[in-house]
Every structure is written in structure tokens, then in C-alpha cells.
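Input chain follows. Return C-alpha cells only.
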Amino acid sequence: MDAHRNKYYQIVPETHATDIISGVVKAMTPLLDRPKERLTDNNEELLTVEETLKFLKCSKQALWNWRKNGILPSYRLGNRVYYKKSDIFAKLIKQE
């Protein structure tokens, strides 16, 4: 019997934690780079903060105030904030 043939290696999960985490990050990165494709529900269009600012033609402070006061709901994925276009249209009020 060959002495090199039956080697056993003890594998401890803690030693591979970095490899596992980097593998998960690598697998998730393409999904996070295309959030609109992955986050839409029933073809619901999500807008980034910048897209929402351009769409509403308002200041960043105004948008933040509306979000803070619950006027315009926002959705978060990680550290990114999104707004549903349908929520924006629902909050628009006709002025008479």
C-alpha cells in the first residue's frame, strides 16, 4: 500500500470563511450591478435617488424630507435607496 495514497486532511470551516465570503460576494456582484432587472415586482419600475431627482426636478433635501416624513416611501437594498415610479405618481396631487 502506498503511504501517500491515504492522507486525510482536517478541514475546519473557520479556515475557509474568507474564501466562502469572497465567493458569495463574487456571485452577488452581477446581481447588484443590475438592480432594476432583479428588483422589479410585476414590472414595477424602480428609480435610483438620482433618477428620482431628475424625474421630480426637486432638490436632494426635498426628496430626503419627503422620505423622512413618510410622504414618499423608499426601498433599500444594502446601502442603495430606490423609489417606485408608481408611488411617485400616487403621491402627485392635482392642484386646483
